[in-house]
Every structure is written in C-alpha cells, then in structure tokens.
From TrEMBL:
One Pfam family, short name: Rho_N
Upper taxonomic lineage: Bacteria, Pseudomonadati, Bacteroidota, Saprospiria, Saprospirales
Residues in Rho termination factor-like N-terminal domain copies: 51-79
Alphabetized InterPro entries for the sequence: DUF7218, Rho-like_N, Rho_N_sf
UniProt region (Disordered), positions on chain: 1-53
Entry protein name: Rho termination factor
GO biological process, one term: DNA-templated transcription termination
Length: 82
C-alpha cells in the first residue's frame, strides 16, 4: 500500500513509482497530479507539432511555473522536464 503524501499528491502509488525511478519530487508530483497521466496513449501529437497555446495549456495543466513568459521552445523543454 502506498504511503499517503498528503493533499498535494493525488496519486500516491504513481508518485512513489516515479520517485523510485529517480525523478525529482517536483516532477513526480506534477506527473502524478495530472488526471490522465496513468492512461495509455501514444496518439498525442509531438510537442513540435502543437501550437504555443496548446503547449501553454498543457503546461498549465501540469503546473509549470513561469509558463506565460516562455517561448514555444521553452514550453517544450519545460514539459519534457529538462
């Protein structure tokens, strides 16, 4: 059973798995708090094929700070967690 990480982490089991893989606390929390993070996909457009607004909306959804001042390239980098 996954440890309760408090109200700031919505999916404790996924958070722990991501931390075990070596992700930072911030990145693991951001991913585990995304409502559709655990769903299988493979059908999404590549970041480079999306508009800046689409990237901004995704950054907002996962809680990336400073997104309003980022260029398209910076949004892509932030979304990839670099």
């Amino acid at each position: 059973m996954a440890k309760d990480h408090g109200p700031s982490v919505k999916n404790d089991a996924q958070y722990e798995a991501l931390r075990d893989e070596g992700m930072s606390k911030q990145k693991a929390a951001r991913i585990s708090n995304t409502p559709d993070a655990s769903k299988k996909g493979g059908h999404a457009k590549k970041y480079e094929e999306r508009t800046k607004q689409e990237l901004y909306d995704e950054a907002k959804k996962v809680g990336i700070e400073g997104r309003s001042k980022m260029s398209k390239e910076e949004l892509i980098e932030a979304l990839r967690g670099s």
